[in-house]
């Protein structure tokens, strides 16, 4: 509040003709007075009692009165060198610190004075310091200056830069240097004229040179005129690359699309749209919610899983869907990363899988990514998720982008990389993308949602869709404001251009002009784009860029999409799984403690039941009591595998996207996961069966029965794990999988020999036991125990043969039982592998 009051008082004194910076507080002088610096331009003053007379003619005074109060409006009105807030600069344009203002300019950069009763504004860029320094130009200022200068060299370069975003970094830097040099010379001349003739005369002279552009009415047609120039001259399409003068930009890479469209049940989501992009461009796909911008991105990236139409070419050749993943990167809106990896480990992991390099080269690339993405300070921090604390949301988004950049892709597709981030984090991401496009010549295509003005200024190209999925603009960002103005939608004062564009193309908004813009685009702009598509030069095809021969492509088939062999993928994935499991050592300890406690409980419940009669109520059923302990131990060993179910389902989505990105295949991923699970199962089962086996007292005399018991329990565990992998593959989520698992395991355990067996169950029902792998496990365990068991004299079963007859067991099948269980485990995993590959694929 105090600052506002001081500021208001300062303005009042300035309007009253008193320069507040000349006021001194010396009590001996009793008045303000400090001499202005030497060589300063005279400052016209006036007072309310005596208005300053204007030396301007009436016409010029009228023009002067039309100067808007806002610098942005001054720019649109054609005023010279508007001091607009700068966004981030293109490569080669370096911001420099502000310099002290000359005497007479306020701290806001605008000198206000009264001339003929009207307030005129002079941007501070008209008043250079003694060194002639002027701030660097952003794109908007750059083009404003270029339009005022008529040199042949500048015009030639402007044709390249202000076309369809087809500009090279070298030409952009050269253009900046020319524009800045001309601007400095122009400003010096202006300052000299101001010093000689007075401020108001200089302003009027400048304004008379650049009159305000008229605005075309809303119902503009293709034949409408704008000061002698046709509306067609404002079409923001690209230059004819084959006919440009000596500075024609020949792109290294082009991605073109013709008549791209998508519909669902006769509902057209994206109406046919055509265009093309080049390397080093940062492209924004914008539109209201439901306009189809993400759909268009997935069609361009070949990630769309449902049928769509259109012709898509890479350097003038039809794109190869098997090779495209090796030349491109795709980042969906959701961060799909392993949460227990550190940032450094994630970059190295994906670099080794996506790039044919050594481990040292992968580490070098990792460090490059950490530095370029500004993640070096969090390199050794876990990524984290909802249950584990890790890096921030903005950092996680940059890690996700870095994952796609590990192989230095020629094209990068990003689905809303700034959504959910703060304004500052969004701008950081945008600056990183701008830097990558400039330095690595990457074509970056983003779906962007409501970018701030400084973020929007970073983009080269804009594709704008309306609420109905129609394209209303497809051209350079630098021309968009003028294009909308000429078509009857001038940018309001102080409005963010990106927000205003969305207002114009959103149905039902106050600025709704979507139908008019879409019709104009279809009749005037689209034909020109189709003409340029036909003239696009052809470049190297995908095979040539990757150095892949036709023989190799034919030999490897679809596996050509992966850069590394299946065996190498398996090794990297296996090592990664081992490292991540060891990192979760608290979870591993919890599992071991749980299995140990369960084994001890079983041992105490059936304590020494195999050595003596412990069933006091029914001593004649003591052998059956021991068989129950065998069956229960096997059942619980299988049931405990349900702990792995959520982990498999959660990591499934990571595998799905990594496979479509050509990082690793289904078989290496499934094989590495199965091996790690098998190693865990061995340790878990050991901790459970050792206390149970010896506390129950199955057999103390021979080691053979113990190892047979151990092998049977391992196979029972492994078979159940295979069943769970199938359910994890076919289930949509963990809740669905848990519900199905209870039913499936209950069915298999019911027909496992203890309750239903060939000797006690009717033949029409007992045949089901042959479908249960637990029946073979129960038979193997029972025979292995009965052969060495000493039956009590008061038992209803007096020999091992009595046990075989009572439960329908065959002692000659002991070895076959283990082989059959192993076969079930392999068979279940084959089904699980197929389910993992083809079921629950993301619908994009």
Secondary structure elements and pairings:
Layout: H1 2-15, H2 58-65, H3 71-77, E1 110-115, E2 118-123, H4 139-148, H5 152-161, H6 169-197, H7 199-209, E3 225-226, E4 229-230, E5 254-264, E6 267-278, E7 282-286, H8 293-300, E8 309-314, E9 317-318, H9 324-327, E10 328-331, H10 343-354, H11 359-372, H12 393-405, E11 411-415, H13 423-439, E12 443-447, H14 453-456, E13 461-465, E14 471-476, H15 480-486, H16 497-505, H17 514-535, H18 542-546, H19 550-556, H20 566-583, H21 585-605, H22 622-639, H23 645-660, H24 666-696, H25 703-730, H26 734-750, H27 763-766, H28 773-786, H29 800-807, H30 814-838
Parallel strand pairs: 7-12, 7-13, 10-11, 11-12
Antiparallel strand pairs: 1-2, 3-4, 5-6, 5-8, 8-9, 13-14
Helix pairs in contact: 2-7, 5-6, 6-7, 10-11, 20-24, 21-24, 22-24, 22-25, 22-28, 23-25, 24-25, 25-26, 25-28, 25-30, 28-30
Using brief descriptors, characterize the structure shown.
single chain; 6-stranded mixed β-sheet; 4-stranded antiparallel β-sheet
Structure description:
The longest helix has 31 residues, at 666-696. Strand 3 and strand 4 (229-230) form a beta hairpin. Strands 10-11-12-7-13-14 form a six-stranded mixed sheet, with helices on both faces. Helix content is 49%, strand content 9%. The radius of gyration is 38 Å and the shape is elongated. The chain has 844 residues and is α/β, with parallel strands linked by helices. Helix 6 (169-197) crosses helix 7 (199-209), helix 10 crosses helix 11 and helix 22 (622-639) crosses helix 25 (703-730). It is built from 30 helices and 14 strands.
């Amino acid at each position: 509040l105090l600052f506002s009051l001081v500021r208001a008082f300062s303005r009042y004194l300035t309007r009253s003709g008193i320069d507040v910076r000349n006021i001194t507080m010396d009590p001996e002088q009793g008045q303000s007075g400090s001499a202005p610096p030497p060589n300063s331009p005279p400052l016209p003053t006036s007072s309310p009692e005596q208005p300053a007379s204007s030396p301007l003619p009436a016409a010029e005074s009228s023009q002067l009165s039309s100067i808007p109060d806002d610098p942005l409006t001054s720019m649109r009105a054609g005023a010279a060198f508007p001091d607009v807030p700068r966004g981030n600069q293109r490569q080669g344009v370096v911001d420099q610190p502000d310099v002290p203002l000359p005497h007479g300019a306020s701290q806001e950069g605008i000198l206000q004075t009264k001339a003929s009763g009207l307030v005129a504004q002079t941007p501070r860029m008209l008043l250079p310091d003694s060194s002639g320094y002027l701030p660097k130009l952003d794109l908007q200022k750059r083009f404003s200056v270029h339009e005022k200068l008529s040199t042949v060299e500048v015009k030639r370069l402007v044709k390249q830069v202000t076309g369809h975003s087809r500009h090279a970094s070298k030409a952009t830097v050269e253009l900046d240097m020319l524009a800045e040099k001309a601007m400095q010379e122009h400003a010096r001349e202006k300052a000299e004229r101001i010093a000689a003739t007075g401020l108001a005369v200089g302003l009027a002279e400048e304004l008379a040179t650049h009159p305000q552009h008229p605005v075309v009415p809303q119902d503009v047609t293709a034949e409408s005129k704008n000061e002698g120039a046709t509306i067609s001259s404002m079409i923001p399409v690209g230059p004819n690359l084959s006919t440009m003068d000596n500075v024609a930009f020949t792109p290294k890479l082009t991605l073109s699309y013709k008549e791209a469209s998508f519909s669902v049940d006769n509902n057209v989501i994206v109406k046919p749209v055509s265009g093309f992009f080049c390397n080093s461009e940062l492209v924004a796909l914008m539109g209201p919610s439901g306009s189809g911008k993400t759909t268009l991105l997935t069609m361009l990236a070949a990630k769309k899983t449902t049928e769509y139409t259109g012709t898509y070419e890479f350097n003038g050749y039809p794109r190869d869907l098997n090779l495209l993943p090796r030349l491109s990167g795709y980042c969906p809106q959701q961060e799909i990363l392993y949460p227990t990896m550190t940032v450094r480990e994630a970059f190295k992991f994906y670099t080794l899988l996506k790039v044919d390099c050594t481990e040292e080269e992968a580490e070098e690339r990792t460090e490059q990514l950490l530095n370029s993405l500004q993640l070096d300070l969090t390199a050794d921090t876990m990524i984290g998720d909802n249950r584990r604390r890790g890096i921030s949301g903005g950092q996680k988004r940059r890690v996700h982008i870095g994952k796609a950049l590990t192989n230095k892709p020629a094209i990068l597709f990003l689905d809303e990389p700034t959504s959910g981030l703060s304004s500052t984090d969004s701008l950081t991401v945008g600056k990183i993308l701008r830097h990558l496009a400039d330095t690595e010549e990457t074509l970056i295509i983003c779906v962007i949602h409501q970018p701030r003005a400084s973020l929007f200024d970073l983009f080269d190209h804009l594709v704008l869709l309306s609420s109905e999925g129609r394209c209303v603009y497809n051209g350079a960002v630098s021309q968009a404001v003028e294009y909308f103005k000429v078509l009857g939608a001038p940018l309001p004062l102080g409005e963010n251009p990106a927000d205003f564009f969305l207002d114009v193309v959103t149905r039902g908004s106050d600025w709704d002009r979507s139908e008019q813009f879409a019709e104009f685009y279809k009749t005037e702009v689209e034909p020109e784009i189709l003409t340029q598509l036909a003239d696009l030069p052809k470049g190297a095809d995908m095979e040539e860029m990757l150095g892949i021969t036709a023989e190799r492509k034919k030999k490897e088939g679809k596996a050509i999409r992966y850069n590394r062999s299946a065996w190498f993928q398996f090794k990297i994935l296996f090592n990664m799984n081992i490292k991540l499991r060891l990192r979760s050592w608290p979870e591993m300890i919890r599992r071991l403690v749980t299995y140990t406690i369960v084994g001890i409980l079983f041992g105490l419940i059936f304590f020494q039941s195999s050595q003596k009669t412990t069933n006091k109520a029914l001593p004649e059923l003591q052998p059956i009591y021991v068989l129950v302990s065998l069956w229960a131990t096997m059942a619980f060993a299988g049931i405990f595998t349900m702990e792995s179910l959520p982990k498999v389902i959660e990591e499934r989505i990571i595998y799905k996207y990594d496979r479509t990105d050509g990082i690793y295949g289904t078989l290496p991923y499934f094989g590495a996961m199965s091996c790690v699970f098998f190693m865990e199962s061995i340790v878990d089962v050991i901790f459970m069966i050792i206390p149970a086996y010896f506390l129950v007292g199955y057999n103390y005399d021979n080691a053979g029965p113990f190892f047979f018991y151990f092998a049977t329990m391992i196979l029972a565990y492994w078979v159940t794990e295979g069943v769970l992998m199938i359910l994890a593959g076919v289930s949509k989520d963990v809740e669905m999988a848990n519900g199905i698992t209870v039913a499936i395991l209950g069915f298999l355990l019911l027909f496992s020999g203890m309750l239903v067996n060939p000797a006690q169950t009717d033949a029409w029902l007992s045949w089901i036991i042959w479908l249960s792998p637990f029946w073979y496990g129960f038979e193997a365990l029972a025979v292995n125990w009965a052969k060495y068991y000493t039956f009590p004299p008061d038992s209803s079963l007096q020999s091992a043969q009595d046990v075989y007859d009572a439960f329908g067991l065959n002692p000659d099948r002991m070895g076959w039982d283990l082989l059959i269980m192993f076969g079930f485990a392999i068979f279940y995993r084959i089904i699980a592998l197929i389910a993992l590959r083809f079921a629950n694929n993301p619908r994009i």
